[in-house]
Amino acid sequence: HKYLDMPPAEQMSRQFYWQLYHSACRDICSLKANWRRGYYTITRVKIGSWVWCLQCNDDKIVTGHDNTIKVWDRSTLQLLKVLEGHKGGVCCLQFNEEVIISGSYDHTVKVWDIQTGQVINDLHRHKKAVNSLKFRTDTLVTGSGDETVSVWKIVSPTDITLRMTLK
Questions:
Q1: CA distances from residue 111 to 1, 3, 96, 104, 151 in whole angstroms, order as listed
Q2: Contact 71/64 with Cβ under 8 angstroms?
Q3: pLDDT band at residue 154, thresholds of 50, 70 and 90?
């Protein structure tokens, strides 16, 4: 059998992922069954303005609004911070442990320190609303209503430079 011919470390790795896969399948089945039976709770939170975009993780929910970004505690649903700085609605955002990056109808991309809520970088390139963005460790990509996609190099949250613009 191919599995037994593998080195022990690789066997353990495959076994781990096989168990993880089965565990995920069980969780999905359980979620579906609970949903069908009505075993769930919906909690409504009064936000106070339109929500244009959002992202969440295990700890936080981050929402984009008219001119502001709100950071919520996911377990308590309490508002932690309101970030102010955009002059137009926040169309898109993404966050990690360090930063929130947002795009707006004001044509800008802002980088926020997630702990302090302060703007630490302000990127100006687009001529219309920045309506999509995605970032990874060393790259930020932004899309705009000006029919361009900008690719940025991230050295640090305060050191981001334009690499190229696709038209």
A1: 52, 47, 11, 12, 15
A2: no
A3: very high
